Amino acid sequence: MSAVPESPSRPAVTEREARQVAEAAREQDWRKPSFAKELFLGRFRLDLVHPHPLPSDEEAQRGEEFLAKLRDFCETKIDGARIEREARIPDEVITGLKELGALGMKIDTKYGGLGLTQVYYNKALALVGSANPALGALLSAHQSIGVPQPLKLFGTQEQRDTFLPRCARTDISAFLLTEPDVGSDPARLATTAVPDGDHYVLDGVKLWTTNGVVADLLVVMARVPRSEGHRGGITAFVVEAASEGVTVENRNAFMGLRGLENGVTRFHRVRVPAAHRIGEEGQGLKIALTTLNTGRLSLPAMCVGSGKWCLKIAREWSAAREQWGKPVALHEAVGSKIAFIAATTFALEAVLDLSSQMADEDRNDIRIEAALAKLYGSEMAWLMADELVQIRGGRGFETADSLRARGERAVPAEQILRDLRINRIFEGSTEIMHLLIAREAVDAHLSVAGDLIDPDKSLTEKARAGAGAGVFYAKWLPKLVAGPGQLPGSYSEFRHGIDLSPHLRYIERTSRKLARSTFYAMSRWQRRMETKQGFLGRIVDIGAELFAMSAACVRAEHLRSRGEHGREAYQLADAFCRQARIRVDELFGRLWANTDDLDRKVVRNTLAGGYAWLEQGIIDPSDDGPWIADASPGPSTGATVHRPIR
């Protein structure tokens, strides 16, 4: 295997330094309440989410009108099978979406956008993503993390006036952070932006640039070196894709999302006006993370759309297919899968709508809720698609084109399985999301007791922290002993034929148990807590289930109060909560009874070659190229594959 030469521009950083960079980028303050944060602290604040928040009548009318136009476009102008077959979205489809205003769904009307709420933006993504997931990814990358959102949050008025009208109607944008050797560890970012008068000069290579192949505008994260008059650090820039020195070197191909316009982009001495810098120098990661707080909601939106489609196909197929004298749906082994898909789709939509409406209201800090929605949505959608393939049997493994060729309905079940797989990696892998959410969930503890376990703090600082921690825990710990979850009459407003109140009492009790478990772990492992990723992952997964249960119950009551399928919604919420409680109880058991320590030993021995003998008897079809491509700065050696849509 070829080794990757260490780029002279790539910073060499320790694990501690990398963590410090990430910590500096996160939002430090909690100026607004957070339902999920309180849940992890053992406080079930149902009042923050119930009654279910709602959009205004005017917002709903505007959203529904656009959805009707978008549905007509999807049904008449989008050929999902063609996109899958040709591995490319036809230019006329993208042009049609531009004319429809889909590029500006989230952009304010004063800049030529549609000004949709987060709720209706997500409904639109679910709709267009069901026609073809690559289209949903294109629109999401453009608006959720591309140029519009960072400028909305951090841009100057001049930048908004210049770029937002273009993004609303004509120009596609992309977000460029990842590099060939940099993913969730941005401290090692190698792309540089060197100040030169009233410009910056960009050099570097970016990988997996969704929309990068067709983009007109780019948000680029680059490292500004510290110098006189420049604080330096990772910084965000708006870059014209047509600038001299920008080369799209490759259009990447994937197992799913075959229409995705994702590439490798090289910058060689690209001059960017200082006026195109977003925010201040060194704010790039903070801008990226803040943008993702709501930007992450676009991904579970498409997961909800996928769940709805899985449910539709499972229902229709399982009613038509008979085995041993009755429809396969009536066989328990298949029926349980359908029940899981139905209940989980209901819960995912509940999580998405609740989080989105909370984002629109802006009364709550939803950074944890959005992260949980992304984590839970991506994991559960993948499971639902896998169950659909199993329900379909051999037909689930067969391609839609093959089914059509032999005279059967062309159901792309295997495609949705491939398309959904990336969601567990996109915008923060499941493993990274576990760590990100865990860090936010224990923030209250670190705020009062972090100095106690910080080796760099002095004895005086540790003593001061100890006194503060003593006061905090003296008030907090007694509240974890008892609560409304132990009173049989609690949450009686959720009793309507089917009784959901036991589930809400379970959430309240379990929230306190979760907080006690976290406190015990911190007391036991102290500064080693951050290395216990298996434990932290299970803590987060329990919180995700409790959040989903809360959302499902609140949504069921909301639908009942409006006379919209109330009994059916209660039944689905009840089924989901019963299924989720089984998963939660299992996760609690695995907090302390697991193979984490043994697994670490096996990993070390594996890396040392101790089990290399086990790999004998196979042929490795991989070639002998480098594991990570060389991304040294310099001019491109090939022609660009950039193809802007005009």
From TrEMBL:
GO terms for cellular component: cytoplasm. It catalyses: a 2,3-saturated acyl-CoA + A = a 2,3-dehydroacyl-CoA + AH2. One of its GO terms (biological process) is fatty acid beta-oxidation using acyl-CoA dehydrogenase. Residues 1-29 are annotated as: Disordered. One of its GO terms (molecular function) is flavin adenine dinucleotide binding. Residues 13-29 have a biased composition (Basic and acidic residues). Residues 64-169 form the Acyl-CoA dehydrogenase/oxidase N-terminal domain. This is Alkylation response protein AidB-like acyl-CoA dehydrogenase. It comes from Streptomyces capillispiralis.
